[in-house]
Amino acid sequence: MASEDISQLADSLAKTKVGGGELSFKGRTLKLNTAQDAEEVVQEIERFEGLQALRLECNTVGVEAAKAIAKALEKKPDLKRCHWSDMFTGRLRSEIPP
Predict the structure, then answer these.
(1) Does residue 95 lie in a domain region?
(2) Domain-located, residue 97
(3) Could you say which residues form the signal peptide (predicted)?
(4) Mind listing the pLDDT tens digit for each residue in 41-73?
């Protein structure tokens, strides 16, 4: 990784909130289209011991990114809640589930 990439990752992680079994990306306005776009979220999910809640409000998640996140969540037996409101801004109608 280039030092610029590391710096961006450090800044991004500094904005991520963790507490009480909750991992939050709320309000980060992430645009996650591909599995690669979702890699930061996936890595944080995988590292989080005892994950009970995931907050992704105010971010936009496409099909491929959602699949990557879902795969990471499959390994989290303590997960109870996912807060996913306001997640389709900027998406085509065909990308939004009924």
Answers:
(1) no
(2) no
(3) none
(4) 999 999 999 999 999 999 999 889 999 999 999
CA dihedral (48, 50, 56, 62) in degrees, to 10, reads 70
* Residue 17 pLDDT grade (very low, low, confident, very high; cuts 50, 70, 90): low
> What Cα–Cα distance (Å) separates residue 68 from each residue in 3, 8, 22, 58, 65?
26, 21, 19, 18, 5
Cβ-based neighbours of 23, under 8 Å, separated by 6 or more: 16, 17, 44, 45, 48, 51, 53, 54, 55
Residue of 80, 6, 87, 89 lying closest to 40 (CA atoms)? 6
| 84 band by pLDDT with thresholds 50, 70 and 90 | confident
Q: How far apart are CA 23 and CA 91, in angstroms?
A: 24
Q: How many domains does the chain have?
A: 1
